[in-house]
Amino acid sequence: MAAPPFAADDPCHAAVLAELTYRLRQVFCTQEATAVAMPGASRSGIEAVLNSLIEPDDRVLVGVFGHFGELLCTLAARHGARVRRVDVEWGQHIDPEMMIQAMLDWRPKLAALVHADTSTGIVQPLREIGRACQESETVFLVDAVLSVGGCEINMDAWGIDAVVGGMQKCLGGPPGLAPLAYSDRAAASFSSKPHSAYLDVRRVADTWHNPQPETELPTPMLLALREALRIIDEEGLEARWQRHARAGRAVRAGLDAMGLQRFGDPAHAAPMITLVRVPDGIGDLDVRQQLLEQHGVEIMAAFGPLRGQVWRIGTMGTNAALASVLHVLASLDAVLNAQGFATPRGAGVDAAAEAFV
Ligand SMILES: Cc1ncc(COP(=O)(O)O)c(C=O)c1O
């Protein structure tokens, strides 16, 4: 990232962008989709896809099982869509049949879902919904901001037309670009005149493939993404998914052994984030503050209706490692006991170490 920026018509630009296309296709598991990165936070990529697809009053069906499904509804409505929702209680996944039935009833232009919702720690099955989209006129958009690099997200095999990832989670990079990919089928449905000229994926793809002297691309971020993707390639994508799975298993085993209650359907638990209930009588903020100040460990508060009731423990990228898991659990053990919640001391780290196989 500290390398001097290069100009858009510098020959090394084309080489960096071609390498990024190749590597992004790998992480999204697609042979031929157009793969680019939108400058900005991950939601800029989601907005860009929505802006490119939605014309006024288009029907958009959104599955909502957490905060980021809500975000999809908000963004689709802001881009002029008529939004219909399929809701389930936070902590559950959406039964694919519910989504498919709603699609058959309403025939939306676009169906949108989050793959793994960071607010609930639930992974949503996508394959059947993708197949149903492919068999109909519906374009399928998936928010894989949390999941990409941490578990399988298979664009081609699951019938996904557009997918947006995040740099700063399981890809292990800094925030600032939204990697995304879209199929020819999605491109065929793009509006000829999206209302935002900037959030236009076709424009991004055009400048990606034909850099113009007057366009600046954020070269430090592109180099950061390239490095993150090279590191993933060195590890191996499947090995990385397995490392995240092991870390998730270890956290869950450790929390259970400490006598804590996890939140959400365990059968659909995301490997890269684990939600655990704040025990009765224990202060959400006190524990998080003590963890941070005394142990250098940051766990996250919850969103919306879960705020104050649940903590979120991320094991993403380099933190999907036994050392990080043991550090978090040992620290939490110490802080909880200091706050008056007695755990079987040491049981959490022992169980985690055993489960990290
Ligand atoms: C599943 C999911 N989608 C979207 C976002 C939005 O990402 P950003 O804050 O980078 O826009 C997040 C951020 O945490 C997320 O976890």
Q: How would you describe this structure in keywords?
A:
357 residues; three-stranded antiparallel β-sheet; alpha/beta; globular
Tell me what you see in this structure.
The chain is an alpha/beta fold. 42% of the residues lie in helices and 15% in strands. It has 12 helices and 12 strands. It has helices spanning 11-28, 42-53, 67-78, 96-106, 127-134, 184-188, 201-209, 219-235, 237-257, 284-295, 322-338, 347-355; strands at 34-39, 59-64, 82-87, 110-114, 116-117, 122-123, 139-144, 162-165, 177-182, 273-277, 300-301, 310-314. The strands form 3 sheets. It has a 7-stranded mixed beta sheet, with helices on both faces. Strand 5 and strand 6 form a beta hairpin. Helix 1 packs across helix 8, helix 9 runs parallel beside helix 11 (322-338) and helix 10 packs across helix 11. It is globular. The mean pLDDT is 96. The structure holds pyridoxal-5'-phosphate (PLP). Pyridoxal-5'-phosphate binds next to helix 2.
Write the layout of secondary structure elements.
Blueprint: H1 11-28, E1 34-39, H2 42-53, E2 59-64, H3 67-78, E3 82-87, H4 96-106, E4 110-114, E5 116-117, E6 122-123, H5 127-134, E7 139-144, E8 162-165, E9 177-182, H6 184-188, H7 201-209, H8 219-235, H9 237-257, E10 273-277, H10 284-295, E11 300-301, E12 310-314, H11 322-338, H12 347-355
Parallel strand pairs: 2-3, 2-4, 4-7, 7-8
Antiparallel strand pairs: 1-9, 5-6, 8-9, 10-12, 11-12
The structure holds pyridoxal-5'-phosphate.
The site of pyridoxal-5'-phosphate has 12 residues, from helix 2.
Q: Quick one: how many beta strands?
A: 12
- Which class do the helix and strand fractions yield? alpha/beta
Q: List the uncertain runs.
A: none
**Element order: H for helix, E for strand:** HEHEHEHEEEHEEEHHHHEHEEHH
Major β-sheet annotation: 7 strands, mixed
Small-molecule binders? pyridoxal-5'-phosphate
Share in β-strands? 15-25%
Mean pLDDT comes to 96
Tertiary shape? globular
- Rounded to the nearest angstrom, the distance between the terminal CA atoms is 35 Å
Helix content: 40-55%
Structure annotation, total helices: 12
Strand order of the largest sheet: 1-9-8-7-4-2-3
What is the C-alpha radius of gyration, as a whole number of Å? 21 Å
